[in-house]
User: Fold these one by one.
Assistant:
Number 1:
Amino acid sequence: MNKLVIALAGIFFLISCRNDKKAEDKPVEETLTSGSIVLLTDNTLQPIVDDVLTIFHSVYDRANIKQINKDEAEIINLLSKDSAAVAVLPRKLTAEEENHFLKRKITPRISQFGFDAVALITNKQSTDTIINLEDIYNILRGNESSLKSKLVFDNPSSSTVQYLLAKAGVTKVPERNIYSLQSTEEVVKYVHDNKDVVGIIGLNWLLQPPASLSEYVENIKVMGVKNVKAEENSDKYYKPSQRNLGLGLYPLTRSLYVLNYQGKNGLGMGFATYIGGTEGQRIILKSGLLPVMIPTREIAVRKELETTE
């Protein structure tokens, strides 16, 4: 009898294991909070997306969003090839870039979730602490500039460089007075080790640097930038703080978007809803970037009962 019980138990165990394996092999249905997608993320926004995804995954354990960090140009290329359908970028697609999806009758869902900035940094020993944007634009146009420092950026395909080129009204990076490196980390380290250069990076990397970069970030200076839209004869210069971004005083402010071209209510829409909702906006606010919606704080005030003698 004991042998029969053991045999039956073994059979039930094998059946259970097979059922469990089948359940594991079965893909999780994609919904707003479950399933698997690839999220293309602009390199300059890597730290904040890391943070939001960490919390998102802890809340929704059936969701698997694979973050792939790329330059702006690479992301646009991958979207156009349908290698992914959801991206985080500091700009919307142009009408020409979006036409690929419209031809396939995919309605884009664009969700703005915050603001960041292009920051200009310099060596801590540099005597320059402020900068005029026209000097930057003249260098990018290949013209003479009163700025003696050279510009340093990660690579021509990055969103920070493309943003400044558009501001300067040009499409290509000139060959003079500009150094091109490979990553934001390299730019920070280069500025840290060299005088007479101005680095161009995304603000998010200054606010949330990885541990390996923290020491370098602490020993560089963020430059004040003159707001060319400010009143004439104004000598005010502004740094990229939350306050200055919110008041429109810092001139190199960018809007941040989740671009969703899934064409359905899938996990991409769930992520966009989360990062644009109360919890996601709190994470943005805590990071030092500016959320589109300032989360409210509820403070409970307990009124003590008055007593009379």
Note: Confidence is low (pLDDT under 50) at residues 4-9, 301-309.
Number 2:
Amino acid sequence: MLRVAIIGAGRIGKVHAQAVNAHPEAALVAICDPIGTAAEDLAQIYGAKAYKEADDLFADPDVDAVIIGSPTPLHAPQVLGATRAGKAVMVEKPVASDVDEARALEAELATFEHPPVMVGFNRRFDPSFAHAKQLLDAGDLGEIEQVTITSRDPEPPPASYIAVSGGIFKDMTIHDFDVARFFIGDVVEVSAFGQNVIPELKETGDFDAAMVLLKGANGAVATIINNRRCVTGYDQRLEVYGSKGSAVADNWRPTTVSVNTADASAAQQPYLNFFLERYADAYRNELSAFIDAATKGTPVSPTVSDGVAALELAQAAQESAQSGQTVRL
């Protein structure tokens, strides 16, 4: 039984708390959050300890592993604090605030032996995306040629969140950069086009929609389509196209019912409206992979190196969108 603590009692912390509590091979033993009574309130639900300071949690001998869901600027130092205390770590995306910090973290981790460190790119563990990857790896689709990733949120976050998010490419597209690398491997060129389609968000200085074109070292190309607003719901689609065929993962809806009337044909319900519903299975599968890495020594994936690579693509996309030029890596 892996004894797990969670840093961050906000939205993502609650997601992880629920997943850990429900897992037969894990026990939720502690919650850490410095703000108000957030840690105490969440810990009380699960009968766990509550901490204000991460260092106190790291010193707890009853904690085997830590899931880090704190604000991004705290990710790298908390990864180091946890690993130096001998705890296995799963850290939410992005792995650090910027590329330099991420590379420094990677270099520091290489200087000492430590338990597994996994980066929370949960979409690798989505059953549909994972099945498409299995088909590709098995050769059923032939040689990879093109990947199209669509990711649109139902509604934008508050402007106050966007102002500290690191920008759309680090905050939102970062998941899609990892999915693209998952399928086409290393990326050598990035072309990005940013948009401001939501007037009330323009003052944040960030883009609220974007399209990105990635060229892989193997010649394959990935297209990413993002928008922070989608009135039809949480629009999450994937197409993997190869020389022998393609695999398509479509949107999820509450049911598969299709209605035909005099007014409409093949009418369906809107897409699921939130990432917690759409990727519930992915979070559970991600946790199982983390537990296996921590208790059985199975290979870690995604790694800190994957986190660094995703941040490099985010930085290149930002540069390309601002300059109008293709960025070569």
Note: The mean pLDDT is 96.
